[in-house]
Amino acid sequence: MAIAKAERLMNLALCLLGTRRPLSKRELRDSIEAYVEAARPGQGAAGSDDSFNRMFERDKDDLRELGLVIETVEGLDGEVGYLARRDSNRLPPITLDAEEAAALGLAAKVWQQARLAGAASGALQKLRAAGLPEDVDPYEAHSALEPRIPVHEAAFEPLMLACRDRRPVLFDYRKANAAQPEPRHVEPWALECWRGHWYLAGFDRDRGAERVFRLSRITGRVRSRGARFTAPVPDVVTVRETVASWAGETADRSALIRLRTGAGYPLRAKATGVRELGGGWDELEIPYGHGLDAWLVEFGPDVVVLEPAELRADVVDRLRAVAKG
Question: Does the pTM exceed 0.70?
Answer without folding.
Answer: no
